[in-house]
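Quick illustration, no need to memorize.
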Amino acid sequence: MSTLFVGIDVCKAHLDCAWRRDGAREQRALRVANAPEGMAQLVAFFIDDRPQLVVVEATGGLEMALVGALLAAAIPVAIVNPRQARDFAKALGQLAKTDAIDAGVLAHFAEAVRPKAHFVGEEDTRHLKELITRRRQLLEMIKAESHRLAQSSATVRPSHYSPQYRAFHWSPQDAFS
């Protein structure tokens, strides 16, 4: 049985796929819409010819619907750092950058590096992780604003330190108490 490695380049509008089988890139490639219908088409395609690993780049969340669809079909998928994939492409001498080329590089990366397939937890777990991430971002923003306020000129600062402001002031330390 031959081993199949798949790379999928995720864009807002579409998904570009490339295959490598037993060390040689196949000539077939597939582009589907980045929508539930396109993902269903990919899953149906992979049901008949199960890949050993599918690799996608982290794209700020655009990849999560695809990853969820693949995991629901029990297809192993790894999410990789885009910088890793780009460095791998440079090491191969692949300097051109198109969606189809990126998909081919990801398929080659899947075969050569074999990154660990990730398990994306249930919806509630993912939702909780998103909330925790957002909370961390907000705390960092509050901390940055308090540093900016401390560095502001005296003409700006008094209005910020009015009794009304102090009554409603909240600091990041309050989040941990």
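The longest strand covers residues 24-33.
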